[in-house]
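Lecture 7 notes: from sequence to structure.
We start with the chain below.
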Amino acid sequence: MRKDINGHKSSNGSTSSIGRFSGVPPDITVACGDLINTPISINYSNNLTGACGIAGSVQNVRNGTVSYCGGTLQDIWVFTDPCGRTISASRLITLLPASPPAFTSLPANVTVSCEDVYNVNTVLNYTNGQTGVCEISGTVSPVESGSFDACGGQVFYTWSFTDQCNRSITHTMSMTIEPAPDPDWVDAPGDENLDCGGVNNPPPFIVVTNGLTGPCGININAPLVSVTQNGGTYTNKWEYTHPCTGDVFTHTQTTFTIEAPNIFVQDPDIEICAGLLLICRPLKSSISMALTRSLPITLPFRLIHPMRSCQKSCPMQEMFIL
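Predicted structure tokens for the same chain:
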């Protein structure tokens, strides 16, 4: 096989008797979207006339496969005359890869409060804007990464696509999460005065919370860490460490206890008539006396008077034994 006058291959060793092709298209390289699939006819002739003349035209046969990644096609023209002699010509078409795709409507980065975090399930479209064999289009869902908690954090959503030509496109959206609100003490006990005989009995812990649940929640049982006493005064202290800042917070309660009174009553003298009886019992009437801390106390009593009147020389006096 050898090439014809136009530089293309011919299967006949002598082109003078069978003829040759004219106007064979040259090899070409085209963009993916510029490929033309219209049949191409070329002429053949042996340049003779009359009964010896061989002339006509033949369409190409296109072989090969291409995709949006490009490829190579071959156009072949073949003619066999009535004598069984064959001529052929060919040309190569190199198809360049199609334009790579791109995402449309890209989500922007956002910053949100911890309690307003939301899931991003947006499906992104990608396309290269072409059609046919050169078209690259479709959709892709995001892949989530990163983490956050009550102290804040970052979550990333990444969309990726790799075409058959091993070309990749990627878009990443970042969500910055702000720290959750700080917690506060719940029903923390305040200072108090205990009744006489009362006991300092602080709770073993105090609830500390920011009122949220899930990853944004800060919920702590702050333990009672110390109880100190100074006389009748007690100081109770609870403590917790902020999980994000490391700061230590304390709550202090002071309780004041009233000491039991130190009662002292001087035994009074009692005068009664001979043979008569005076009894003092703590039932109905009352006596008031001054005690320590200037707190008054009242003791009830009842008098049982003599059964007969005293003589004038021995008057009855209201003196009592307590």
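Points to note: Helices lie at 15-18. The first strand starts at residue 2 and ends at 3.
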